[in-house]
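Two proteins were folded this term; both appear here.
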Amino acid sequence: MNPDPGPYRARDLMTSPVLTTPPDAPRSAVAALLVSHGIASAPVVDAAGRLLGLVDELHLVGADDEAPAAELMTRPVPVADPDTPLDTIVERLLDAGTRALPVVVEDVPVGIVSRRDVLRRVARGELVPAPRTSPQTVADDELTGPIVVGVDGSDGSVRAVRWAAAAARLTGAGLVALTAAGVPDLYGTEGELEGDAARQLAATLRRALPAGDGGTITEEVRAGRPLPVLVEASERARLLVVGSRQVEGLGGPRRGSLTARLVGYARCPVVVVPEHVEVPAAPADERTAVPVP
């Protein structure tokens, strides 16, 4: 094994998307969630997806069957952000005595790192130095990456799709239409959420570009909440395009504009198409859609 674990961060180790449970879920339902997915812990989140606490299998043993997750969970919960280094993660796991550490962005869990996740990497000898990215590589990525447009079914995202399609035609860049499917929980499976999101994405593209845009659009659905999904996509994009009214999206937290927060977190330039700007759907050749699972 390489003796240098390298600059590993939470994003390199975490399981994402993370399975969560609402605070009113009864003990039996939480137990079924943990057992069916082979996990030991689950974050408890409110209706906006914000972290309230953490419930694990130890909390369920001997508890009353009707006890809700809100009564069984541990709080406050130590957390990490996606850039928290490995040594800090291990320190927090040991200090708190918890089985897992939620990884959050603005109080919303985007992943979870368990003791088992860390131990599994150690056993496999996989904790090796993460690759360093040179400034030249970053510059090359910015020139060759696709234009990514965030789609949430709103009128704002229709305008954003039209603007992004025009930009792709002018620059010769690839175009990715991306939507966030949300996070599976007790009331919706990952497959159901992704199916609903894919249908909404296709419908929005039909509204935005009824005559096609003359290029290939990659339709991409990712599990997770809008902010972390778009931030992750920005790492490989030359440009990220969103509508100005994309405040909450699919399950986004009710804490200000998603668009405003996205500008601060994105790893590439962000274009926000204003609400008052009408971008026409210019007629063009037949469009080919390439769905991405």
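Next, the second protein.
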Amino acid sequence: MSEWQALSERTVYENRWVRVNMADVELPDGRHLDHTVIRLRPVAVAAVVNAENEVLLLWRHRFITGAWGWELPSGGTGEGEDPAAAAAREFEEETGWRPGPMRLLLAVDPMPGISTSHHRVYWADGAERIGHPEDDFESSRREWVPLTRVPELVERGEIRSASAVAGLMMLHHMRAT
């Protein structure tokens, strides 16, 4: 089977967070189509597990989907920033806890059919409380949640973020076996 070929791309919108392009794509049978491409910075996600086998989660509302849910701290990586350092930075800013050494857990592309958004999920054993979260507006509360509850929370739709579901289910699997 042949690959789709992007022959050209033009930007139709851009800001510091996102660039939306239109691509002229040639299909294997020679037909052409316009395809939207959303280009985003890579995302770093942080999961920290404490000695009680709990993970620190953020409870927040997402106005785009109109839903409340548990999420892992995350954010875009800066230009040239190490993704593991970005994950640790986001964790500290959003929770008020400084994580231990970050290790890559997994990498996912949540929407590869339309977006370059590449998510790297990092995890650490333990964190040190350093104070009130700098970015406390990012969530209404922060709680240590037992990893054993993760499948139930996913099933109930309380964890909806693709990278959070993937990372937390992987941690649950690793810690439950």
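The CA atoms of residues 130 and 160 lie 28 Å apart. The chain has two domains: 5-40, 43-176. These notes refer to the second protein only.
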